[in-house]
Structure formats: C-alpha cells, structure tokens
Amino acid sequence: MITIAEIASNPLDVAAHLTAVADPRAGATALFVGTVRDHDPGADGEVVRLEYSSHPDAAQTLANLAAELDAPDLRIAITHRIGDLAVGDVAIVCAVSSAHRAEAFDVSRALVERVKVALPIWKRQVTADGEGSWVGL
C-alpha cells in the first residue's frame, strides 16, 4: 500500500512518514533520509544550497515508481522536496514497512535508486562564491 507519494515545497516530516507506514503486521521499517551535503565532486567549491525544480508530472511519476515495487504486505511513504534547500535540509524521505527486514531494506533502496534515475526533478547546486551548476544534466 502506498500511503504517501508526493512532491513537496515545504520541509519534510520524517516522523509523518514513519507514522504513515506503521502497521501491526510490520516487523520492520526501513527509513532513508537524504540530506543536502556541503560538497560534491563536480562542484568548484563548497556547496551552500541546492535548487530543486520538477516537471508537472513528477508526483504521478513518483507514485508510479512506488507502485512498481508495491506488494500486499508493504506500506510505502515517499516524498521528494523541491525549492531552495540549505546544507542539512532533508531532500527526500522514503519509509517502507513489511513483515520482514530484508524486504523493507530491499524495496526502500530500490525505490530511492529508481527515483534518482527516473523522477523528473532537476538539481542546481550553488557554491559559496554564488556560482551555480546543474547536476546530472
């Protein structure tokens, strides 16, 4: 069951994702929280913020990616943030619960990896000198 699949411009609530996948049949919950870091191999200097933008179909694409991995004993909650994010801000939250830990880990990792490849969200990193560069284009 997909409980959350959203693109959000407001700060992400990690606890809300955990609550969304809570289930008495679940023996495991895997949680991934992706945050903005202050460095990138492709950056010329210290990264101070990321600017995320998305295609209008991004929320539906995210829901479709989650649906591809959904199974009867799973609960999935995933949100990707857009807008200006500072170092330390949460960019993505993915929580998956299942009866057993292996499936929760596997599905969480697979979904995050699919998001990195297929979700139409673009990232521009800005360095301390004010210069910006697009990542992954």
TrEMBL record:
Alphabetized InterPro entries for the sequence: MoaE_sf (IPR036563), Mopterin_biosynth_MoaE (IPR003448)
Entry-linked Pfam families: MoaE
Protein name per the record: Molybdenum cofactor biosynthesis protein MoaE
Species the sequence originates in: Microbacterium istanbulense
